[in-house]
Amino acid sequence: MKWVQIPLGPLQTNCYILYNEDNDCIVFDPGAQGRELVEYVEEQQFSPKAILMTHAHFDHIGAIDAIRDRWRIPVYIHELEEDWLTNPSLNRSSFFGAEITVNPADKIISQEGKLNIGDFSFSTYHTPGHSPGSISYYCKEANIVIAGDTLFHHSIGRTDLPGGNHEQIITSIESKLFTLPDDTIVLPGHGTATTIKQEKESNPFL
């Protein structure tokens, strides 16, 4: 398994593509620039099988329909943010002077556990704090956790937006993400990758 990081949109939100030797892939958080993202996936000859969302803030959702419509694949999201995709107030785009919406998700995640899509296998962790329905996806085979805006390199996700909770995000990180192997690579929603060990040892918020 290999992965590629693609910063998208004005907030440089990280979209990730996890792919195997057959170029089958999973797309995480396609946040913006739908046409360019579709072109990139086509150029790389990837074959998307699903879109997995860490959460539904506006900067993470903008290119969902471009990818979904091109490859006719399902979108997965946590049940607590199911309504956010179609509501600019909930996804906070209206707060920033925009009206960003996409079509409803196809698959709703209601509990933690195993998620298998084709040859891809994930452990899903509900990691609220940045938003109520934040999910982190751990792929043991690739030694990565796609953490969205929960855990960053030497930082944590903001908790001042509606639905955010500082104590909750700390608990999510310490009780769930920090249980993963120390060498697990953390792929955050913004910025550079890090590791669980590095954040345990030097994250000033934890």
Description:
By secondary structure, this protein is an alpha/beta fold. It has a single domain, classed as Ribonuclease Z/Hydroxyacylglutathione hydrolase-like (Metallo-beta-lactamase, Chain A, 4-Layer Sandwich). Helices cover 19% and strands 31% of the residues. The chain is built from 5 helices and 14 strands. It has helices spanning 34-43, 58-61, 64-71, 166-175, 196-202, and strands at 2-8, 13-19, 24-28, 47-52, 75-78, 107-109, 113-117, 120-126, 135-139, 144-148, 151-152, 155-156, 185-188, 194-195. The strands form 3 sheets. The protein has a 6-stranded mixed β-sheet, covered by helices on one side. Strands 7-8-9-10-13-14 form a 6-stranded mixed β-sheet. A hairpin with an 8-residue loop joins strand 8 (120-126) and strand 9. Helix 1 packs across helix 3. It is globular, with a radius of gyration of 16 Å. Keywords: Hydrolase, Metal-binding, Zinc.
